Each structure stands twice: as C-alpha cells, then as structure tokens.
Amino acid sequence: MVDDFTKYERMEERDVKPEQVYLIAEADGLDFSTSIRMLRRVYNLSLIEAKEVSILSKSKADSLIKHQEKLLPSLEKALNKLTIGDE
C-alpha cells in the first residue's frame, strides 16, 4: 500500500497543527485508518498520539483526559442501568 501524503507533509512544514491537518484529511475523503497512518508518518506520532489527535480534533476538550472525563457521567449511568437490571 503506497500512500501519498505530500499535501499533508507540506502543511506540517508550514507548522499547521496536526488537529487541523486531520480535519483536512477527513474532508479530503481519507478514511480513519489512512488518516491515522498519515498523522503517524507526517508528524512522527505514536498510534496513541495519533488517535488522541483524531479525538481532540472533533472535541471541545483540550486534552484526551478531559474528553474522557466528559464521557464518565454517561458511562456511569449506563453501568448503573445494567447493575439495576441484573438485580
């Protein structure tokens, strides 16, 4: 599989943030796995870092931890429903 990430490499050279480049790649039609591969190659990110960029690019949170904290109340509510249903 040969990917041409030249467009995104040029953006990185102009100091465009990875979150912005991820959104552009998505608008260009790159699927999730290709966008993650692009971030890893262009920005030299780990898989975890690239996934964090993908989440934060669409989130209003400024970190992955804050994004996950927002999910906690919904998860707790769902778990409580499961626990009550088991009784």
Strand content range = under 5%
Number of strands: 0
> What is the arithmetic mean of pLDDT?
90
Largest sheet: none
Shape: elongated
Overall helicity:
over 70%
Written overview of the protein:
This protein has 87 residues and is mainly alpha-helical. The chain has five helices and no strands. Helix 2 runs antiparallel to helix 3 (32-43) and helix 3 packs across helix 4. It is elongated. The termini are far apart.
Highlighted features:
87 residues; mainly alpha
In a few lines, what is going on in this structure?
The chain is mainly α and 87 residues long. Helix content is 72%, strand content 0%. The protein has helices at residues 6-13, 18-27, 32-43, 47-56, 64-86.
Provide the fold topology.
Elements (H helix, E strand, L loop, with lengths): L5 H8 L4 H10 L4 H12 L3 H10 L7 H23 L1
